[in-house]
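User: My collaborator sent over this chain with a note saying "see what the structure looks like." That's all I know about it. Can you take a look?
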Amino acid sequence: MTRYLPLLAKRTTELTSGMSEQAWGVIKQLSADEQERAEAEAVEKARRDMVARIRSAEMKGQSETRLAIATKMLRRNIPIDDICELTGLSSEEVSALVHNADFD
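Assistant: Without extra context I'll predict from the sequence alone. Here is the result:
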C-alpha cells in the first residue's frame, strides 16, 4: 500500500492541476461568452433602433402623403368632411391646411 502512495500523490497533483487548467478554461469560456453576449445584445439593440427609425420614417412619409393628398383635394373644392373620411386626417388637420395653404 505504501508503494502506491507516491503514485497516488502524483496522480492527485495531475488531477488537481488539470482541474485548475480546466477551471481556467471554463473561466475563459465564460468571459468569452459574456463578451459574445454583450456583443450580441449590442447588435440586437442596433437592429431594434434601425427598425424604429424605419418605422418612424414610414409613418412620417405616410403622414406627409395624406397631407399632400388633402391639399390637392382642397384645391378641387372637395368638402372637408369627405377629405377627412378619405385621408384619415382630423378636421383640425385639414382646417390647418386651409389656413396655411395658398389656394388661389
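A starting point for your reply to your collaborator: The mean pLDDT is 80.
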